[in-house]
Amino acid sequence: MKRLSDIIKAYRHNKAMNTLHKCCIRGMEDKKVANFENISFQTGLELLGIYQMLSYRQPMPAMSKDAQTVIEKIGL
Fold first, then answer.
1. Contact 28, 45 (CB under 8 A)
2. Which DSSP category does 75 fall into?
3. pTM for this structure?
4. How far apart are CA 37 and CA 26, in angstroms?
5. pLDDT at residue 1, as a whole number
6. Contacts of 56 (CB under 8 A, 6+ apart)
7. Who contacts 47 (Cβ-Cβ below 8 Å, separation ≥6)?
8. I want to staple 63 with a disulfide (CB 3.0 to 4.6 A). Which of 7, 11, 42, 67 is the partner?
9. Which long-range contacts (CB under 8 A, 24 or more apart) does 40-47 make?
10. pLDDT by residue (tens digit) across 24-61?
């Protein structure tokens, strides 16, 4: 049973990371992202830095209010 819960947690984390990466790229291109308000270029760059830190399993950094909103909506 523990293995099943670990698989589900890993799946949710991977899905959230993929969504974060999509938000980073779309935000830097100044394109609209579905289910999110317009993400500015600066927020897109900040999200890219957060994405890289989370990819290497580092703790969450301090971030702006817009970035916090995006991270909360994604579920990280």
1. yes
2. T
3. 0.76
4. 12
5. 67
6. none
7. 20, 23, 24, 27, 39, 67, 70
8. 67
9. 40/66, 43/67, 43/70, 47/20, 47/23
10. 887 777 777 777 777 778 888 888 888 888 888 888 88
